[in-house]
Structure formats: structure tokens, C-alpha cells
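Sanity check

After download, print the first record. It should look like this:
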Amino acid sequence: MSSSGIRLAQIDDSTRADLFALRVTPSQLRFVGSVQDALNDAAAYPHANPWPRAVLAGDRAVGFVMLSWNVVPQPPDLIGPWFLWKLLIDESHQGKGYGRAVVQLVADLVRAEGAVELLTSYVDEEGGPAGFYRSLGFEPTGEVDGSGEVIVRLRLRDDA
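Expected C-alpha cells:
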């Protein structure tokens, strides 16, 4: 899958080391965990149907994205069916439109699968990703997840 010069690729031996080296800025650490943490979560919660992917620009890993792929929701712990579980763009590649392109690419993918909305959540604190998600069209659902994060939705169809 490709959009705006990026593509999503399955994680394999050729991308794993580069993914583990990805870092966010120090001020973002309280909002975004590591790729290793995300993959540990994926292994611990297989019922969440994790869909992890490397974000590549050319052959270089610039980020990581993971979704819960078409799961039966079990709130407050399992949000879905289509949930953007993790989005991380390396600090050296932020501000280049990669995050926005990843979300658009993911939205197109899940829309093609019949999704009417894409959900995600975030910590609602100063310096957090709320503005980023709002700028992409995500709207609060009025709900919070099991850890108190605000759940937001991106409508993928007009009838959603």
C-alpha cells in the first residue's frame, strides 16, 4: 500500500531492527510507547486481532502503525471493530506529512473492508495528539477507554 511516498509493509527481519530504533521526541514519551511495547501488547492481546505494519518511505522505516483489525468490540478494553491502536513517526521524520498520510492510508484500507468509522484514543493532556487527530476529522465519541483515554472517531462514510 502506498500514499504520499509512503507504504505500509509487514514486519520482517529486514524492517524489525529499524523499527525498534524509532524514537519520538522526549515530550511525546508520555503519549506514545515504543514499537517493542506495541508488539508486546499485540502478543499479549491476540484477540484484538493486531495488524502491525512498518511505515516505509522508500526502503527506510520512518514509522510504525498498528490497528485492531475488524474485531468484535468488548468495551472498555477492546475498542473496534477498526481501531488505530498505535501510530508512531520517528522524531527525525515528523513534520513531513507521514503521520497524516498513514492515517489516510489506513482509513482507505479499512473503508475498502466495509468499515464505517475508524476509532482511536489518546491521552487528553497539553502537548498530546488531540489537535493532530482533530485536524484529520476525528471527533470525540463521548466515551473513554479502560485507561481513561478519550475515544475519537473518523467517519468513513456519510451514513456513519
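If your output differs, re-run the checksum step. Summary of this record's structure: The helical segments are 13-20, 35-44, 98-112, 130-135.
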